[in-house]
């Protein structure tokens, strides 16, 4: 098949796409009509003369909506901008009659790392700017956990560092308190930044020390979640042990405190128990961890405040070795019945030795698929039907990859993970982390949104819970995995779009523009485009800002996010997805049966 030409170049119309003139005979070698006079080889032989071919400006419609998606790949690929049309790189077919699967309304959720306690910067959760940004990602879960959660001790009377306190207390019911002053916010950001090297060094060296969390800090956490429209999940310390079993005495103090405040909190116990020996010289069997969760379940049942609370675990690392799979199996056999969902963690690469090439590699993106299937196989054999979450995830472990995890290029991994996870049946994906030490955060050290934040915000606004099956059925080029497409019903509470709308999101990992044609039931529909490209054209894939439909996204002010507007495409248009970019498309009048509101 011929490769699609770049925009602006002249294109010939591929022979397979040319409408044959009535009476025209096939030509032999040299372009002559078989057995005819060379001087008259282009003269039609039937009368009256044939009608002229359709105007080239109509070729996008002809090639897209006139196509039968079962045609041979490459048909019509030659029409391009230079001739008034555009090359058709890929034709897409979607089943909109029924959902492939359905995910949680809180599918895209976020995490706060317990390392915030180490940097004395938890009071940043009272920042007006941070709360505004967090509200943009609601509804969702906010998980307070990570490696340092297994070194946290609760001390009700111990106070957190609070610079120049203004006397404003945290409301016991979690109502929104007065935000910290701009000056205090700037000081706390300075503290966070200055402590970051120490936090990362501890992580690299696996040299962790116990840290305390006060009642006031619990108040701040709950208030932040409540005011942001998020549900708090708190990770309890599983390394407190007595004769191999979990010592729950400190956790009981925390549960008692939260119950006295009527805080609606859900719980985890332990973070990556497969690494306990490495970070704390403690080995734990999956069966014992399951018994520890049974113990936690019984404790929660003694408090009426936790009658509807959730329990999530075991937060294992990805199943790279048999011992991790065996730990999960043993855990689920003894403790799986008390869980609301099973959690495991996934990162594509090591942040210390990865590269730009890895972030653009289809093979690395595809590596998630077998891991998901392996976890589901264990679940099916032990506690079939339980929901499965990616309880902690980002691009690269070890705090992220410098100059990659916080740039535009990280969006390829993040958007593909959202699409593939949902398609494979993952119910919730918890992004590590909203802000803090490292490079994989959604916000930078000044609490400014990074490209992955804007991607997440748009996802939250227009992507619904019903997952649809969409496939590339034809392409000019061999399927190299560089064009990746997913589809959901549009978020149902979005008043801007009609009943039955669908949202497609696509990723182009290639250095060539891709052209997408929607076939059959989605043909000739009205489309809103949300094209995301690097905000800094000079920095390109290393940009820390992003353009939506050619406008750089930024907050209006500390209390206001920008209006997210799509760009309307002409009905039936072939969609151009530029090289190294990703985008969302709302097909407004799809009238998909799977997406009809009750």
UniProtKB/TrEMBL annotation:
Q: Name one GO molecular function term.
A: hydrolase activity, acting on glycosyl bonds
GO cellular-component term (any)? membrane
| Keywords, ordered alphabetically | Cell adhesion, Disulfide bond, Glycoprotein, Hydrolase, Secreted, Signal
Pfam annotation, one family: Glyco_hydro_79n
Entry EC no(s): 3.2.1.166
Region: Disordered; residue ranges are 1-53
Tell me the protein's name: Heparanase
Organism of origin is Callorhinchus milii (Ghost shark)
């Amino acid at each position: 098949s011929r490769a699609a030409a770049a925009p602006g170049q002249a294109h010939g119309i591929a022979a397979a796409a040319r409408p044959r003139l009535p009476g025209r005979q096939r030509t032999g070698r040299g372009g002559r009509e078989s057995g005819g006079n060379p001087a008259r080889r282009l003269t039609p032989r039937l009368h009256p003369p044939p009608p002229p071919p359709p105007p080239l400006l109509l070729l996008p419609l002809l090639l897209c909506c006139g196509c039968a998606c079962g045609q041979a790949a490459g048909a019509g690929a030659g029409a391009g901008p230079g001739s008034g049309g555009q090359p058709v790189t890929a034709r897409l077919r979607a089943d909109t009659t029924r959902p492939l699967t359905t995910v949680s309304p809180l599918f895209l959720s976020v995490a706060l790392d317990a390392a915030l306690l180490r940097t004395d910067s938890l009071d940043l959760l009272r920042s007006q700017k941070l709360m505004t940004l967090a509200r943009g990602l609601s509804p969702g879960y906010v998980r307070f956990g990570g490696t340092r959660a297994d070194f946290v001790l609760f001390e009700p009377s111990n106070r957190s560092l609070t610079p120049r306190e203004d006397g404003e207390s945290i409301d016991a019911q979690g109502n929104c308190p007065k935000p910290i002053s701009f000056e205090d916010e700037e000081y706390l950001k300075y503290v966070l930044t200055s402590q970051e090297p120490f936090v990362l060094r501890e992580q690299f060296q696996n040299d962790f020390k116990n840290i305390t969390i006060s009642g006031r800090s619990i108040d701040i956490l709950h208030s932040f979640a409540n005011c942001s429209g998020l549900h708090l999940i708190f990770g309890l310390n599983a390394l407190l042990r007595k004769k191999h079993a979990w010592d729950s005495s400190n956790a009981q103090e925390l549960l008692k405190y939260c119950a006295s405040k009527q805080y609606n909190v859900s719980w985890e116990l332990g973070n990556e128990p497969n690494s306990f020996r490495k970070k704390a010289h403690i080995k734990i069997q999956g069966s014992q961890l399951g018994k520890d969760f049974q113990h936690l379940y019984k404790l929660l049942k003694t408090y009426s405040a936790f009658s509807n609370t959730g329990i999530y675990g075991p937060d294992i690392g990805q199943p790279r070795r048999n011992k991790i799979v065996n730990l999960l199996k043993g855990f689920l056999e003894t403790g799986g019945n008390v869980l609301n969902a099973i959690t495991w963690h996934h990162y594509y690469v090591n942040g210390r030795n990865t590269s730009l090439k890895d972030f653009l590699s289809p093979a690395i993106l595809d590596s998630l698929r077998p891991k998901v299937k392996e976890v589901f196989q264990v679940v099916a054999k032990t506690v079939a039907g339980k929901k499965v979450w990616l309880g902690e995830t980002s691009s690269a472990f070890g705090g992220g990859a410098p100059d990659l995890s916080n740039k535009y290029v990280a969006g390829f991994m993040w958007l593909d993970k959202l699409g593939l996870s949902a398609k494979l049946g993952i119910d919730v994906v918890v992004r590590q982390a909203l802000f803090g030490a490292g490079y994989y955060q959604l916000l930078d050290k000044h609490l400014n949104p990074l490209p992955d934040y804007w991607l997440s915000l748009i996802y939250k606004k227009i992507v619904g819970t019903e997952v649809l099956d969409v496939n590339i059925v034809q392409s000019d080029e061999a399927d190299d995995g560089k064009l990746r497409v997913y589809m959901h019903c549009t978020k149902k509470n979005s008043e801007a779009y009609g009943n039955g709308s669908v949202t497609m999101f696509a990723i182009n990992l290639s250095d060539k523009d891709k052209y997408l044609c929607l076939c059959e039931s989605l043909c000739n529909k009205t489309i809103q485009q949300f094209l995301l490209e690097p905000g800094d054209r000079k920095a390109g894939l290393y940009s820390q800002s992003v353009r939506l439909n050619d406008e750089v996204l930024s907050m209006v002010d500390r209390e206001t996010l920008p209006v997210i507007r799509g760009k309307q495409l002409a009905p039936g248009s072939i969609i151009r997805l530029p090289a190294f970019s990703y985008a969302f498309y709302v097909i407004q009048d799809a009238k998909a049966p799977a997406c009809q509101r009750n």
